[in-house]
Write a structure and sequence with these properties.
heterodimer, A: 804 residues, alpha+beta, Phenylalanyl-tRNA Synthetase, Chain B, domain 1, OB fold (Dihydrolipoamide Acetyltransferase, E2P), Phenylalanyl-tRNA Synthetase, Chain B, domain 3, 6-stranded antiparallel sheet, 21 helices, B: 352 residues, BirA Bifunctional Protein, domain 2, 2 domains, 7-stranded mixed sheet, two-stranded antiparallel sheet, 11 helices
């Protein structure tokens, strides 16, 4: 809302500086976003054009003698077509700083010779003054503009740009803001007095108004002005509308907008001669009806839409926009003026349906009070006559057929006030607040006050609303500041929250960078990581921001690869990314299953470029090492089982492992499928990815986690063994066989070899095997016997032989 | 024989000592020791020949030999000390490295700045007795709006531009959405527990909103809720003041102004005084010259919300608040554009 200070001053005295006023309003809940000063026109004043004569050397220019106020006339060259003798105009002397429409910059005005004639100043257009866009003609001021007055004093203004919250409908109007200022500063508010003569014949004989659907239109009032002359509004009216951000149209229409800005009540003017049978019926639209609205769009109506109709057709969408068929035009002489109250819910639905959020609908949808309708009607009737002439018919229509809601009286007790605010406020203080807000206030007893809010406030319904009124007017600084003193409730267990924190910390500690990306992706993104057929179709957003973000992701992989390929664009790596977030798995007629996943992608060189490090690419085993450490930090020692290709379509079919703990799959690790690396055009290969399913981690059986093992004081003995096994025997299997013996404390694989000196199809695995007992020192004999036993088992189970 | 043996001991000793003074490193000393004192060394060889002498001579020459041995050993030790002293004196020059060369790179991982700030925020409230709870990111209209006193068709719905899930129920409605705030957890928590309630809800939220330097359609929020008998607006002030002091320093001041959220009444907005310019710089980038920085919305839980979950709204009161971690991070670290957060540029992420 743009509220000009000059307009506010008509209703309430303001002696605060604008920024102080803005601050007070903001603190009270009416936020002033910006304060714009209009003016700064040094060396400009109100002048009068005394004489206009042709320019001797140019047909399009004229010579004007201008009186700038000191009875000294000055000669000015002017190109505007609308300049005429007798006009009051904005005169700029040499030295004024104005917008130059040719150079498109602000420049200081100099005396200039134009086609041989010296111009001693300039008659200004809107654009040159920064008042508007117009520069076809000059600004013509009202006749009563005082000659010689500095333009800053005459036209200068301050515009408050309000960011009004939806509850404070009253502050969508200048008077509403004036009332608010009155309450904050203690100044009285003058509401414009309405008085006019009803010289015409009774309205009832000349127009018929009825409301067929009062549930959607609780109150409908109308007046009639005949014999009006449509034309442009007087300058003052145009100026006010322009400064409040509305475009002037014609006198009658401008008045309806003016009163809407003034009182908040949207009004509509019909050309009565275009209304069939001079009959207005407020009703739901009939099936199949259509209406061309004022914006020139033909709209199909449905039966939930409230229309204003004549005896046959709709002539307007109630409370939203008028119809083209009954529009005020240059030839209009009879104006039927409507001021009504519409059902807010239905109004909002209509506005939503047609995507027509007009100044009117934005007010009606928030619930204007019905008391306002006749007040605004009379004000507008008076102004129409003032600016467009005509005769006002006797009486008005006032159909108040809606369920007459009693004016809401709300009661406040000091006890409740203290219960909510935590402070005592005296009954006098409370009363004073409500009186300053012009609430009808009644002291029920020494601890109870009952109020009826005025017609411009529709946001006061319950006791807490009154408490807010009290505290926002007396100021929040006056409320004490205390710490919570109620008992601390039992802590709610949050195992997933804690697990997520530990997983993130562990992944960061093994050198991975956390990323967070958009949970919405496109189907294309998912197809690129072969993740479409795997589950049912991902959840779609009905109104996505963009085509690239329209599905709730069932995997983090697409996002991570996006992050990788984005960063490859401007960095050498290494790239070690992880993200911990939810994936969304649809369930019929339920909210989706939101599962917590940690996933990562790792590629590029193992180390930052360095003079010390002999660098190689990060590969599967780098990541396996990271995950081994990560899971160890969580107290887990998983097994890594070769994964079938079809199980993980995003992974290299020969380089993928399931991560298994206590028999449960808790994640996967693998090289990215070469075709996906190709699709993402990755610069660094291989890229290795992993996923850990946190929900599955959380449900692992008890005892899968950390268990303390006592530190043994007996020495360990170690033997190195090189085993020859068939190539398809996984090293992990051999290691498991060694590991599971109770005297084997630790097994380290230190060499893998295939090639020369070995039979084809065989490989050699070399281990350090550590033997230890928690009960005694093992003898060499015991160790050798144990090892021999193990070798027999290995021979039997995997066909291992000792390498010569 | 005795004479000549004694003489050769003496000569050997002199030769050895003469060489010793010329030695200047530990390897040479070791060679010297082996040459004269080792098992096959000169002195040992001479002494080995003693067995051919008679007992008297053997004793005489043996004593001579032992004296020579200890002399050589003493001198060796002395020389060894001298050399290591001399070496230490020169170690700076001998072993100097260029300490300005870069160190061996170690891979470090960091948490996303949002994660870090969310943790800071929740830690502050956990210390005041709040428990952390989380809720679904895909929500029903029922929890996101209706239970929060924002019924269908309420004009305040415009405050939350909503991304709706493409799901239509049997009644032909579209009731599933991406939560626009973490506030639905207020209703979910209260539905499942009786007062006292003191929870904090971190999580992702979504809005149908064009992005610019201060707006993202995907962002985090931290919601708080405290409900019990006897909780007042004064407690809200104290709790949020304490939070501001923890996050932005104990000298912080706070200010409350009236604001509107349908699920609280009275509703407020809390600002802290500008930690950057303390209100002294009219062109301050952080507070835009106002001296104050808005950091969160709050208010007393609306009786309609309490009644909606079956609480006795006359008996129980409470406060709720909500804040944006990205905004807090932007303020703390001077980040000028919220779009940096989720574009995952390493050059950004590495700074935190």
């Amino acid at each position: 809302m743009q509220i000009p200070l000059s307009w506010l001053r008509e209703y309430v005295d303001i002696d605060l500086p604008a920024h102080e006023l803005a601050h007070r309003l903001t603190m009270a809940g009416v936020e002033v976003g910006e304060v714009t000063e209009l003016g700064g026109w040094e060396n400009c004043c109100v002048g009068q054009v005394m004489e206009v004569s042709p320019h001797p050397n140019a047909d399009s220019l004229r010579l004007c003698r201008v009186n700038p106020g000191n009875d000294s006339e000055m000669e000015v060259v002017c190109g505007a077509p609308n300049v005429a003798a007798g006009q009051k105009i904005c005169f700029a002397r040499v030295g004024a700083r104005l917008y130059n429409t040719h150079s498109e910059r602000h420049e200081t005005l100099k005396a200039a010779r134009i086609r041989g004639v010296v111009s001693e100043g300039m008659i200004c257009s809107e654009l040159e003054l920064g008042l508007g866009e117009g520069h076809e003609g000059i600004v013509v001021l009202p006749d009563d503009a005082p000659i010689g007055m500095a333009l800053d004093d005459y036209l200068g203004d301050t515009i408050l740009d309000l960011e009004v919250t939806p509850n404070r409908l009253d502050c969508f109007s200048v008077l509403g803001v004036a009332h608010e200022i009155g309450a904050l500063t203690g100044k009285p508010v003058k509401v414009p007095e309405v008085r006019y003569q009803e010289d015409g014949p009774p309205i009832t004989g000349q127009a018929t108004v009825s409301v067929a659907d009062p549930d959607l239109c609780p109150r409908y009032t109308a007046s009639l002005i005949q014999g009006v002359k449509i034309g442009p509004s007087p300058q003052w009216l145009q100026d006010r509308l322009a400064r409040a951000g509305l475009r002037p149209i014609s006198n009658v229409v401008d008045v309806t907008n003016y009163v809407m800005l003034e009182f908040n009540q949207p009004l509509h003017a019909f050309d009565l001669d275009k209304v069939r049978d001079k009959t207005i019926i407020v009703r739901r639209a009939a099936p199949g009806e259509a209406l061309e609205t004022l914006d020139g769009v033909e709209r199909e109506l449905n039966t939930e839409v409230l229309v204003i109709a004549d005896s046959r057709d709709p002539v307007g969408l109630g409370g939203v926009i008028g119809g083209a068929n009954s529009e005020i035009g240059p030839s209009t002489t009879s104006v039927l003026l409507e001021s009504a109250t519409f059902n807010s819910y239905n109004n909002r639905r209509t506005a939503d349906t047609f995507r027509l959020h007009t100044d009117a609908s934005q007010r009606f949808e928030k619930g204007l009070r019905p008391e306002l309708a006749p007040i605004a009607l009379r004000r507008a009737t008076q102004l129409i006559q003032e600016v467009a002439g005509g005769v006002i018919a006797q009486g008005i229509y006032d159909i108040y057929a809606g369920s007459e809601e009693p004016a809401p009286r709300v009661t406040l007790t000091l006890k409740r006030l203290k219960q909510i605010l935590g402070m005592d406020v005296s009954v006098d203080q409370v009363e004073a607040v409500f009186q300053s807000l012009e609430f009808d206030t009644e002291r029920v007893d020494e601890t109870t006050v009952s109020v009826e809010p005025p017609y411009w406030r529709s946001d006061i319904n319950i006791e807490e609303d009154l408490i807010e009124e009290v505290v926002r007017i007396i100021g929040y600084d006056n409320v004490p500041t205390t710490m919570l003193s109620t008992p601390i409730p039992y802590r709610q267990p949050a195992p997933m929250t804690e697990l997520k924190a530990r997983v993130k910390a562990a992944l960061a500690s093994v050198g991975l960078q956390e990323t967070i990306s958009y949970p919405l992706v496109s189907l294309e993104d998912l197809e690129r990581v072969n993740c479409i057929a795997e589950t049912s179709a991902p959840l779609r957003v009905a109104n996505p921001m963009s085509a690239g973000h329209d599905h709730l992701r069932p995997t983090l992989l697409a996002s991570l690869l996006g992050t990788l390929s984005y960063n490859e664009g401007h960095k050498e790596g290494p790239f070690r990314f992880f993200e911990q977030a939810r994936v969304f798995l649809p369930r019929p007629n339920q909210l989706p299953d939101e599962r917590e996943v940690a996933a990562g992608v790792i590629s590029g060189l193992r180390s930052e470029p360095s003079w010390l490090v002999d660098n190689g690419p990060l590969d599967f085993f780098d990541v396996k090492g990271m995950l081994t450490s990560t899971l160890a930090l969580l107290g887990l020692t998983p097994s890594w089982e070769p994964a079938a290709g079809e199980e993980n379509p995003a992974l290299h079919p020969g380089r993928a492992a399931n991560i298994v703990c206590s028999g449960y799959k808790i994640g996967v690790l693998g090289e990215l499928h070469p075709s996906i690396a190709e699709r993402f055009d990755l610069r660094y290969r291989p890229a290795t990815v992993f996923e850990i399913y946190l929900d599955d981690l959380l449900t692992l059986p008890a005892g899968s986690g950390r268990n303390f093992r006592s530190l043994t004081r007996f020495p360990s003995a170690h033997r190195d063994v090189a085993l020859v096994v068939p190539e398809d025997v996984p090293a992990g299997k051999v290691q498991d066989i060694l590991d599971r013996h109770r005297l084997v404390e630790k097994v380290e694989l230190f060499d893998v070899y295939a090639g020369e000196n070995l039979q084809p199809g065989m490989k050699s695995l070399a281990f350090h095997v550590y033997f230890q007992s928690s009960e005694r020192t093992l003898t060499a004999d015991e160790v050798n016997r144990t090892l021999d036993g193990l070798l027999r088992v290995l021979q039997r189970e995997v066909g291992a032989t000792l390498r010569d | 024989m005795t004479q000549s043996t004694a003489q050769s001991i003496e000569e050997l000793t002199q030769t050895a000592l003469g060489e010793l003074v010329l030695l200047d490193n530990s390897e040479a000393l070791e060679q010297w020791r082996v040459r004269y004192l080792g098992r096959r060394g000169g002195l040992t060889g001479i002494l080995r020949g003693l067995s051919q002498l008679d007992i008297e001579q053997r004793r005489e020459v043996g004593a001579l030999g032992n004296r020579a041995k200890s002399t050589l050993e003493d001198e060796l030790e002395k020389r060894s000390q001298e050399i290591s002293q001399a070496r230490l004196a020169q170690v700076a020059d001998l072993e100097r490295i260029d300490v300005t060369l870069p160190g061996r790179p170690v891979a470090t991982g960091r948490l996303h700045p949002t994660t870090q700030v969310v943790r800071e925020i929740t830690d502050a409230f956990v210390a005041m007795g709040f428990s952390i709870v989380e809720g679904p990111e895909v929500e029903w209209d029922h929890y996101n709006f209706e239970m929060l006193n924002i019924p269908q068709g309420h004009p305040a719905r415009d405050m939350w531009n909503t991304l709706w899930v493409d799901y239509v129920n049997e009644e032909g409605q579209r009731p599933m959405l991406l939560r626009t705030h973490t506030s639905p957890m207020q209703a979910r928590v209260m539905e499942s527990a009786q007062p006292p309630v003191r929870v904090i809800v971190p999580g992702k939220c979504y809005r149908y909103e064009a992005t610019d330097a201060t707006h993202e359609w995907h962002f985090y929020q931290v919601e708080g809720l405290a409900v019990d008998e006897g909780i007042t607006f004064a407690d809200l002030k104290g709790t949020l003041f304490e939070f501001a002091r923890r996050l932005f320093g104990s000298e912080r001041k706070v200010r409350f102004r009236c604001d509107y959220f349908p699920f609280v009444e009275p509703g407020v907005d809390m600002s802290i005084d500008c930690f950057s310019c303390q209100g002294t710089d009219s062109s301050c980038r952080i507070c835009r010259g106002s001296g104050w920085i808005e950091i969160m919305g709050a208010g007393m839980v609306h009786p309609q919300v309490l009644a909606g979950v079956g609480y006795d709204a006359e008996k129980y009161t409470g406060f709720a608040f909500g804040l944006g971690p990205e905004r807090i991070a932007m303020l703390k670290y001077g980040i000028d554009d919220i779009r940096h957060f989720y574009s995952n540029d390493l050059r950004f992420l590495r700074q935190f």
